[in-house]
Every structure is written in structure tokens, then in C-alpha cells.
Specification:
- The longest helix has 12 residues, at 15-26.
- This protein is elongated.
- Helix 1 (15-26) runs parallel beside helix 5 (207-216).
- It folds into 3 domains: 3-61 and 198-225, Pseudouridine synthase, CATH 3.30.2350.10; 64-196, Pseudouridine synthase (2-Layer Sandwich); 233-302, Roll (Archaeosine Trna-guanine Transglycosylase, Chain: A, domain 4), CATH 2.30.130.10.
- The chain is an alpha+beta fold.
- Strand 8 and strand 9 (158-165) form a beta hairpin.
- Helix content is 21%, strand content 33%.
- The strands form 3 sheets. Strands 1, 2, 3, 4, 5, 8, 9, 10, 11 and 12 form a 10-stranded mixed β-sheet that branches.
């Protein structure tokens, strides 16, 4: 089974929990995800299955889009609602304009301190493992890019927002740092991821829907059409001879794609067999091969 599936992750499960559930439902060992979501967060969790796990390398720096709520009045040790308070609760009296003005400096390229409870490694150990043992975590600020951060509404001590960020950005840190800037403390109360690169909520399915589709034999209807993946790479439909050359590690000539650096190679409409990279001129070679060897009959025919 080679596919890309988007799960609408429920709150309370880790991304790894979801991967394990999907492995059991599909009876497929090779399942990975394209970007961790915290247990509190919900929304788009793209999963790559079978040979398409090899596509993960193209999504490591993917843009993400979020909607959520920041609660003002106290901070927490995890920077979200799952953590323990680290400051006394206080009443807040803020206006929407005030919050928007104080949120404005978070747009663009900024230095951000990752949360103590994060996957950032300290001498090879994830920071959250040290933080759980109450070992002081010394993290270094990193540069992140927040392409859009809009405060939508303010109701009492909670502000709703929409954000579009580059990979590696922690919205928990944005909430915490905004609270520090205002001077009242804050944490991330709710978070929902609405998109990872080209993959959005419109194509997402619940774990229950996945189980039902397996039972009714319609699971393939839930998979993302492979031609929708990586839209920045043009598509080419390979002939049998071209497909054989690509699958067996040989270069192919693609004069119609002479300006492209990377291309998606298909057999028919749905079978993505490779991502090919331009070697020189119009000559392309497979960067990764995504399907197995062709049938012996096809291979024999190509040798005649």
C-alpha cells in the first residue's frame, strides 16, 4: 500500500499515537507523519504510507497554517493549557487594538526560544524528557519565520488568531512570549492546524472514518490523489520504456521539461513511480524511486 492520507488528529493523542492507530487499522507497518502535532492540538496530520514515506524529505521545511486561541492571565511550564501554571493568575483588561499592536512585532523573521517541553535535543536528549524530570533545560533561541499572524477576536481573556508560519515555529512560544510582552502571562489554549503545504482540512478524515472505509473496502477513496502532491514539481507520464529505465536507475530524456529541476514521474494517472532530478540539459535521473521493479515480461520486452 503506497499512499498519502490526511488524518484530522483529535486532541489528547500524540502524533505517534495516531501513526500506531493507522498502522493497526491498515495493517501496514510503514507509516510516518509529516510534522508533529502536540497532544493538545487538532487538525491536519499528513501520513505517508508504504514507499511514499520516501516523500517525507520534500516536506521537512513545509509551511504550516494554524488557527487557535491564546489565553491571557498566567503562563504555564509547557506554554499551553496542558501544563502547570508558572505565574499567579491575574485579571486582564485588554482591548483588541492593544493585543493586535503588541502582536505585530511577531511577524517576519524573529528569534524564538523553543518551549522547555519540546523535541529540541540537548546533548542528544529531547528537552521534554529532561523537563519532565524537573531538570533545568537550557535551550538556545532559533530564527523562525512567521509569515502571517492575525489576531481575529478578543473575548475577555482569550484571543483567537490565525497564523501562517515556516517550519520549526512553535505557536506555544508565540503565545508565551506575547504574554511576557504584555506583562500578564499567557499560554496557548487551543490550536488547530489547517494546512501543511498543499495538504488541508478539506482532505482530512477522522480515525473512525478510516476504520469504516477499511471495513467497506473504500479506503482508497480517502487517499490524496498523487498528482496533487508537491504541486511545485511538474508531472510527466512515462511510457513503458521510460518507466523501466527510471525504475532500473537509468537516465531518461525529457525535452518538454527542460526548465524543471525536479519532476514527478507517473505511470497512468495515479501511479507515482519516482521523483526525478535534472542531471544536465534535458536529461533526468531518479532522485527517489517509489514503486518496485516492473513485471518480468515488461523487463524482457525492453531488452528485445
Amino acid at each position: 500500500m503506497n499512499a498519502v492520507l490526511i488524518i484530522d488528529k483529535p486532541a489528547g493523542l500524540t502524533s505517534h499515537d495516531v501513526v500506531n492507530r493507522v498502522r493497526r487499522i491498515l495493517q501496514e507497518r510503514s507509516v510516518g507523519h509529516l510534522g508533529t502535532l502536540d497532544p493538545l492540538a487538532t487538525g491536519v496530520l499528513p501520513l505517508v504510507i508504504g514507499n511514499l514515506t520516501r516523500l517525507a524529505q520534500f516536506y521537512t521545511s513545509s509551511e504550516k497554517t494554524y488557527e487557535g486561541t491564546i489565553r491571557f492571565g498566567f503562563s504555564t511550564d509547557t506554554y499551553d493549557a496542558d501544563g502547570e501554571p508558572t505565574s499567579p493568575a491575574q485579571a486582564v483588561d485588554l482591548s483588541l487594538d492593544q493585543v493586535r499592536e503588541l502582536a505585530a512585532p511577531f511577524r517576519g523573521r524573529i528569534e524564538q526560544m523553543p518551549p522547555p517541553f519540546s523535541a529540541k535535543k540537548i546533548q542528544g536528549v529531547p528537552a521534554y524528557k529532561l523537563a519532565r524530570k524537573h531538570i533545568e533545560v537550557e535551550l538556545k533561541p532559533v530564527q523562525v519565520e512567521i509569515k502571517d499572524f492575525e489576531i481575529l477576536q478578543l473575548e475577555k481573556d482569550r484571543a483567537s488568531f490565525r497564523a501562517r508560519v515556516a517550519s520549526g515555529t512553535y505557536m506555544r512560544s508565540v503565545a508565551h512570549d506575547l504574554g511576557q510582552r504584555i506583562g500578564c502571562g499567557a499560554h496557548l489554549d487551543l490550536l488547530r492546524r489547517t494546512a501543511v503545504a498543499e495538504l488541508g482540512l478539506g482532505d482530512a478524515h477522522s480515525l473512525d472514518q478510516l476504520e469504516s472505509a477499511v471495513k467497506t473496502g473504500t479506503v482508497e477513496d480517502l487517499f490524496i490523489h498523487p498528482r496533487k502532491l508537491l504541486p511545485q514539481f511538474p508531472c510527466v507520464t512515462a511510457s513503458d520504456e521510460m518507466a523501466l529505465r527510471i525504475r532500473t536507475g537509468r537516465a531518461v530524456n525529457l525535452p518538454e521539461l527542460s526548465q524543471a529541476k525536479l519532476v514527478k514521474v507517473f505511470v497512468g494517472q495515479r501511479e507515482l513511480i519516482a521523483i526525478a532530478t535534472r542531471v544536465a540539459g534535458t536529461l533526468f535521473h531518479a532522485k527517489i524511486v517509489l514503486t518496485g521493479e516492473p513485471s518480468p515480461q515488461l523487463a524482457n520486452n525492453s531488452k528485445r
